[in-house]
Design goal:
434 Repressor (Amino-terminal Domain); elongated; single chain; mainly alpha; two-stranded antiparallel sheet
């Protein structure tokens, strides 16, 4: 995913990430410059890789080396991950977790917030399909999963 601004937000109707419009960019700038802004109303970014890299004082090339990226344009591959142009492989996501010391779910918060309610919705469907199943443990797990994540619409 890419945009002119390089900033994305989750679309309220589809739940998918889309370029952040100019008016929302203004909200983000207010949030960055205000101690009184309620951050809970802001949608999560698809990932927080750049934020964590900057906090770690590492360059893109250094992160690429830590990830074991081979070939030319190593920093470019990290840039594409950080700017949401691609979703890293599971191996890279786990390596990011090892580098930054934060769980994948925090590093990719926006993506997680998009996926978790979808999984819960499918669990609810499966719960009703399997209702009357002879396995009460399965029904209990599906019920808990269906209720675990509320729909996140921002």
């Amino acid at each position: 995913m890419s945009s002119r601004h390089g900033v994305f937000c989750k679309h309220a109707n589809s739940g998918k990430f889309a370029p952040l419009h100019q008016s929302l960019l203004h909200v983000y700038s207010l949030a960055l410059n205000s101690n009184e802004f309620d951050y809970s109303i802001m949608p999560s970014l698809p990932n927080y890789l750049r934020t964590n890299r900057k906090q770690s004082a590492l360059s893109q090339e250094e992160v690429a080396f830590l990830l074991g990226v081979k070939g030319l344009d190593k920093g470019g591959k990290i840039s594409r991950d950080e700017s949401y142009a691609r979703v890293p492989t599971l191996e890279f996501a786990l390596a990011y977790e090892a580098i930054y010391g934060k769980p994948i779910r925090e590093l990719f918060a926006g993506l997680y917030e998009q996926i978790a309610p979808e999984v819960s919705a499918r669990a609810k469907i499966l719960f009703y399909r399997k209702n009357g199943s002879a396995d009460p443990k399965r029904q209990q797990i599906l019920s808990e999963l269906a209720l675990r994540h509320k729909e996140l619409v921002v």
